Amino acid sequence: MAMKRWSAYLITAWMYVAWVLLPNAAARAAVAPKPATIDSIVRGAKQEGKLSWTSNLEGEEVIELHKAFQKEYPFIKINYGRVRGGEQRQRVLSEMQAGIFPYDLMSIEEEMVDEFQKLGFLIDPIDWHRLFGIDARMVHPKGFLVSVGNNPAGIYYNKNLVPKDRVPKTWADCYNPYFRGKFSADVRPAHMLSVMYGYGEDWTLDYAKKLLANKPKWMRGNALAVTMVAAGEVLLSCPASHGSWYRASQGKPGYPVGFVYPEGPVVAGRELLLSPLKGAANPNAALLMTGWIAGKGVKYLRTGRESIFHPETELGAEVKRMGREIKVTSWDVAIKAEELMRKILEVWGFPKPERSGG
User: Fold this and answer.
1) Rounded to 5 degrees, what are φ and ψ at 85?
2) Are residues 104 and 195 in the same domain?
3) How many angstroms separate the CA atoms of 158 and 255, rounded?
4) What DSSP designation does 212 have?
5) 112: which residues sit within 8 A by CB, 6+ positions away?
6) Most buried among 161, 180, 257, 336, by the most CB within 10 A?
7) In terms of domains, do 141 and 155 share one?
8) Which residues, listed in sequence order, are joined to residue 183 by a DSSP beta bridge?
9) pLDDT band at 115 (very low <50, low <70, confident <90, very high)
């Protein structure tokens, strides 16, 4: 009798699974989340109604960008805060690890991408090209961020103090004995990585040795480098940032510092790596802003380090007119940035800056 009751229970249980649970499971599968669309992202952003983001751009450099974005999406209120330097960035990272997200969207330095990924702050892959028509060369291979900036490396020189026949034309001019002790080099050799990708590791480490032998003045920060050249404290600075020179020279006729793209390929790093942050309060607004900047808005970033690959940027048009080969740091090199910079610093004996600036 007990066996018959047990069999009846089993039959009833199987009937419940067959008639209730399995159809419900099939129904749930049928309504699985669909891939994001522009419409769904815009709807979500409209509900959120605000966005907080950060980069190392100065406040004035994003005013035009914000106006253009809010003309198209007036329902999003933007809060922008500039974060620069390792100390500020580390503070933000510590807050995020504590579950406090001051920003929905952040520009991440290339050497920090791996750490952000390990900590779980980078979003799942997005098909940026399908959604926003973004050039594939701007998109990280893993799809969680896009690079809307490239900062070409070159040489600063003082136009009033360097004779015309001594104006630098090649990277070798930086170790010309004529400039011995009269040029500066940055103790954080980020732009040496652009040179390395253009010319190879062995060539760059040998170049670092030759720069060292020519007695550079060690400093920290490209804003300081261009200031030193303008003041005549040094005649050259190399390798140096196009973006810092552009910012310093705009609207100043007769500015005494010139910028040279040395012969050979135009070499540039990846900058302004924009990534919506996983766990932040306004994910749709962050996605929308990132995709809009990379697809449309980057032309409003007149910073001297906007994307070379975007056809409507000032820098992209300038490099295109030059008709020269372009070598932008690969994503693999970007991930190994700290390791490669350490190799250069070993050649230089880990110098300390005589002066530090922005």
Assistant:
1) 85, 155
2) no
3) 9
4) H
5) 89
6) 257
7) no
8) 236
9) confident
Contact yes or no for 239/155 (Cβ under 8 A): yes
Question: How many domains would you assign to the chain?
Answer: 2
Whole-number percent of the chain with pLDDT over 70: 89
List, in sequence order, every beta strand (DSSP E) within the chain: 50-55, 77-82, 105-108, 146-158, 183-186, 217-220, 236-241, 257-260, 266-276, 326-328, 355-356
CA-nearest of 348, 329, 354, 337 to 208 is 348
CATH number assigned to the domain comprising residue 71: 3.40.190.10
Answer yes or no: are the C-beta atoms of 237 and 161 closer than 8 Å. Answer: no
- What's the token pair of residue 252? 């100043």
User: Rounded to an integer, what distance in angstroms lies between the CA atom of residue 186 and that of residue 179?
Assistant: 16
* Domain assignment of residue 109, given as a range: 38-148+270-321
- 136 in the same domain as 62: yes
pLDDT of amino acid 358? 59
- Helix (H) or strand (E) segment spanning residue 343: helix 337-348
- What is the distance, to the nearest Å, from the Cα of residue 42 to the centroid of all Cα atoms in its chain? 24
| Interatomic CA distance for residues 144 and 103, integer angstroms | 16
Q: What is the 3-state secondary structure (H, E, C) of 105-143?
A: EEEECHHHHHHHHHCCCECCCCCHHHHHCCCHHHECCCC
In a domain, 17, yes or no: no
C-alpha span between 198 and 195 (Å, rounded)? 5
Contact 303, 152 (CB under 8 A): no
Q: pTM for the full model?
A: 0.81
Residue 61 lies in a domain: yes
Judgement on whether residues 297 and 260 belong to the same structural domain of the protein? no
